[in-house]
Design goal:
By secondary structure, the chain is mainly α.
Length: about 80
């Protein structure tokens, strides 16, 4: 798995080795999910009003904080 930064190429890509296309597709899907591209595409599918976006981002931040707080309380 590599992210292209050389030779003027942009975007994500994986190399197919020994004709293993299925393995390359699996690696590409994993890479796309790790980058969060599928979630971003779903989010951008429809227009979201700025107030709705701010409300959603605040709610997501609150959830992230609660998860972090819960993990810190274990120690």
């Amino acid at each position: 798995m590599e992210e292209s930064t050389s030779h003027g190429k942009k975007g994500l890509f994986v190399r197919v080795t020994n004709g293993n296309l299925e393995g390359a597709l699996i690696r590409l899907k994993r890479l796309i999910n790790q980058e969060g591209l599928t979630r971003e595409l779903r989010r951008r599918r429809f227009y979201e009003k700025p107030t709705t976006r701010r409300r959603r981002e605040r709610a997501e931040a609150k959830i992230r904080w609660q998860r972090k707080k819960a993990s810190l309380e274990l120690w």
